[in-house]
Design goal:
Layout (H helix, E strand, L loop, with lengths): L1 E10 L5 H12 L3 E6 L5 E7 L2 H13 L6 E9 L8 E3 L2
Parallel strand pairs: 2-5
Antiparallel strand pairs: 1-3, 1-4, 2-3
Helix pairs in contact: 1-2
């Protein structure tokens, strides 16, 4: 199981970014986790996948910006250790 923590910076709040990440996870399939806004204007994502190729595709698409109005200027991706999820949700 590959687990990552991502912090997206740029135009990532107020542009449907979280919804785009959620939709992308469902579209790719096999990705579970959470996405939420941080107070500093970034968006944080915890994601896990059994297949590293799926995770690589998920990360690649997030770097592009999952919605037309989003623009990711920097994406910090680190390996993480967190409780496993069975679905993907937008957290509050």
């Amino acid at each position: 199981m590959q687990k990552v923590r991502m912090i997206a910076q740029g135009r990532v709040q107020g542009v449907g970014f979280r919804w785009g990440v959620y939709s992308l996870a469902l579209q790719i399939g096999g990705i579970t986790g959470r996405v939420w806004n941080n107070d500093d204007g970034t968006v944080e994502i915890l994601a896990q996948a059994e297949n590293s190729a799926l995770m690589a595709k998920f990360i690649q698409e997030i770097r592009k910006g999952p919605t037309p109005f989003s623009k990711v200027s920097y994406l910090d991706v680190t390996m993480a250790n967190f409780d496993s999820y069975t679905d993907f949700k937008i957290a509050n």
